What does this fold into?
Amino acid sequence: MDKKLKDIAARLLLREEPPRLSPLHVWDDALESEIRELNWGARGEETVIKALMAGLYLLNDSLDASYSFAQQIEFDATGAYWHGLMHRMEKDFRNSKYWFMQAGRHPVKEKVKSGVSLWLKENSSFGAETRGEGVTLLLEYRDDIAWTPSSFVDLITSQQKKGANNAVVSIVEHLQHLELKELFKHTLGAAGFGV
It folds into this structure.
């Protein structure tokens, strides 16, 4: 099991292109089958395993399958975080914010805030092509001032509008992917599996 899980996790984490803000279909159908076939045995009912399954499916852009696991563990901070991410990706923004609030002071939130700042410093120049709605917030994220899951929902909402700047959308997709990977790594570790 450990080898199979590590192989699936590596393929999901090494995805070249980040998931769309709101995926329209599963990223990799073959991987979807492999995730479904994971046999957890007695561990299958553990909260952390359900969180791991929610994460595996969400990293594969399988929103419905992710939801089926996240809703079983809403009482858990990590489960609530996965639940919030899934709702954000399906464009249920208000519900997303609710679940992020339920996740409380989850340790991943601080890691994501720092990671977002670092990524923006290393990968974004904010030239003329990145002007427009959302850039002010991205600059605040870069300066490690403003990132929260709730403010990120607002930024994503603004980028869902027709005519959104493609350069900004691309940056936001990378940041969402960073957040997904950070929560996934946390969940893997909590389940006793290293990355």
Summary: The CA atoms of residues 163 and 189 lie 40 Å apart.
